[in-house]
Amino acid sequence: MKIDVKQYQVAAGKKVSLNDYSTCYNGSTEKDDGTEELAEIKAQLTRFQEIFYAADSHSILIMFQAMDAAGKDGVISHVMSGLNPQGCQVYSFKAPTSEEYDHDFLWRHYKALPERGRIGVHNRSHYENVLVCKVHPEYVLNERVPGYTDIKKIDETFWKRRYESIRNFEKHLTDNGTVIIKIFLYVSKEEQKKRFLERIDDPAKNWKFSSGDIAERGLWKDYMKAYEEALSETSTEASPWYIVPADKKWYARLVVSDILLQTFKGLDLKFPVLAKPEQEQLVEIKKQLLDETIMSLHSKAMNKNS
Predict the structure, then answer these.
(1) Full residue range of the structural domain in which residue 53 is found
(2) Torsion angle of alpha carbons 155, 220, 132, 178, nearest 10°?
């Protein structure tokens, strides 16, 4: 099965209606075939990551956003299992700390950016500030933004400025060599219920469930609206969003892995070529090492004959 990842990419400037997207893969490929293909992609990712690290010219930032139980952790673990952990870093963002509230909303995310040659994964991201905060505008008051001391003042102008801040932030990153991949794992409300019930029924998964998850589930329509606005406002040519169907975990993992693979290929990177003086130095070092081997063999022969 060859996936056309472009079908999941949100075109820059497009007004998104999630009703136009499916949460479930409806193709003919079976899970076993998809699992086999995922293994093949992982093998390619390993090779491309080596070139990516050696080239040291870009960094990659993968951001995941989703409703609860959409499978972010599973996707991240499967994708990352095909990569060298020394070249990766994963951050899972929780509610901001008091120190983070003393800075602008992008500060803690800027601190967590990957350096050149490395891949950074953000489990939740700065988009929480236009998703959760859009549904719960009272959270914005914790930021103490000048002029916004009351929920009633947090109007459409405020959100437009926040989207603009995000676009400018991401443009700055892409202009300076960070390749951004933004993934929205789109799970259905029915599938979320199924996974919640599995967490409740399985003692080993009880820790994953919180009563607060049910409260947020009750705001599903509000969240879908917030996602639609965020996707519409912030999917750009340089840092597009991908809306990945997530009802079938194996397929979501396959799509995300393939998006990363296609991103690597698009960079067209190659191993660095040494300058002529360094190449000549390597030739000399090789000669020394070979001479050393010859001397060692000669010495062993002499000792044996003596």
Answers:
(1) 5-272
(2) -110
Backbone angles phi, psi at 121, to 5 degrees: -120, 125
Backbone φ and ψ for 171, nearest 5 degrees, come out as -65, -40
Are residues 50 and 173 both part of a single domain? yes
Instruction: Report helix angle 156-175 to 220-234, nearest 10.
Output: 50
Same domain, 203 and 286: no
- One domain, residues 292 and 250: no
CB atoms within 10 A of CB 48: 18
Q: Are 108 and 58 contained in the same domain?
A: yes
Following DSSP, what letter does each residue of 167-186 receive, concatenated? HHHHHHHHHTTEEEEEEEEE
Q: Are residues 106 and 158 in the same domain?
A: yes
**Could you tell me which of 68, 222, 46, 27 has the C-alpha nearest to residue 131?**
222
Instruction: State the total domains in the chain.
Output: 2
DSSP output for 225-251: HHHHHHHHHH--SSS-EEEEE-SSHHH
Q: What is the pLDDT along the chain (306 residues), one digit of tens a residue?
A: 678 889 999 999 999 999 999 999 877 778 888 889 999 999 999 999 999 999 999 999 999 999 999 999 999 998 888 898 889 999 999 999 999 999 999 999 999 999 999 999 999 999 999 999 999 999 999 999 999 999 999 999 999 999 999 999 999 999 999 999 999 999 999 999 999 999 999 888 888 888 888 999 999 999 999 999 999 999 999 999 999 999 999 999 999 999 999 999 999 888 887 777 888 888 888 888 888 777 676 676 666 666
CATH number for position 75: 3.40.50.300
Cβ count near 249 (within 10 Å): 18
298 and 254 share one domain? no
